Amino acid sequence: MEKVAFILKTTAHPTRIAIVQLLANQESLSVSDISEQLQVEQSLLSHHLTGMKLKGILSSTREGKNIFYALKMREVVDVIQCLAGCTFL
C-alpha cells in the first residue's frame, strides 16, 4: 500500500497523469514532443518531468540538446488504469 500511496502522491496532477499515459504508449519522448502533444508550456512541463524523475517515476537521457523521458516505474500505469476504471469517478 505504501507504493500505491507514493504513486498517487507523485502523480496527483492532471498534467502528470497525462505524461504517464503518453509515455505508457511510447518508449521515450523528448520534452518538446511531450509539450506539443499535451499542449503544455515547456517550462511548466519541465517542472513536472523533473519532479517525477527525482521521485523515480521517470528516467531521462540526453541526446545533444534534447532530453528524452521514459517511464521507469511501469506500475504507475497500472495504478492510473485501475483508477480510471472506477465507476464512481
TrEMBL record:
Gene3D superfamilies: Winged helix-like DNA-binding domain superfamily/Winged helix DNA-binding domain. The keyword Transferase does not apply. Keywords: DNA-binding, Transcription, Transcription regulation. The keyword DNA-binding applies. It comes from Hymenobacter duratus. It comes from the Bacteria. Residues 1-89 form the HTH arsR-type domain. InterPro entries: ArsR-like_HTH (IPR011991), HTH_ArsR_DNA-bd_dom (IPR001845), Metal_resp_trans_reg (IPR051011), WH-like_DNA-bd_sf (IPR036388), WH_DNA-bd_sf (IPR036390). This is Winged helix-turn-helix transcriptional regulator. SMART domains: HTH_ARSR.
